[in-house]
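Sequence in, structure out. Go.
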Amino acid sequence: MKITICGSIGFYKEMETARDELIKFGHEVKIPELTLEVPPEFGEGRKIYFGQYVEQNGGIDAFPSKHKIWDLKEGAINDHFLKIDWCEGILVVNHEKRGIRGYVGGNTLIEIGVAFYLKKKIYILNQVSSNLSYKQEIMGMKPTILNGNLAGLK
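Output:
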């Protein structure tokens, strides 16, 4: 099966591990770009992780809506949407983050929504936290919860 892995970039190492295991099972797998090359005004020739860059440079409110950083973020979102279009199903890697077990962030939520709209299979690695106000929306998209077992991905 063609699978696109989704999740918080904070889980990137876990995504790589899941990718490697799924490839061993015979799946084709794509994961998010960890970083994208930045233009000259951001220090050219290096890679950027959006969340970290924003935090280190004054926080989200330091970047007005027309700022170039949002063009880069838009590109990263579109790039991952193309991966979702390519696949037969997505795997959401959702471990503990910020003290929330089964964390699913805002970007991952919209990726799940895109997969749902495109009628892709939706697999979620761990139970989704009830501390997330949008858990009902996730559950309404009828994901298969794997309870940590990648072998359950068919």
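Check: The mean pLDDT is 90. The CA atoms of residues 95 and 101 lie 6 Å apart.
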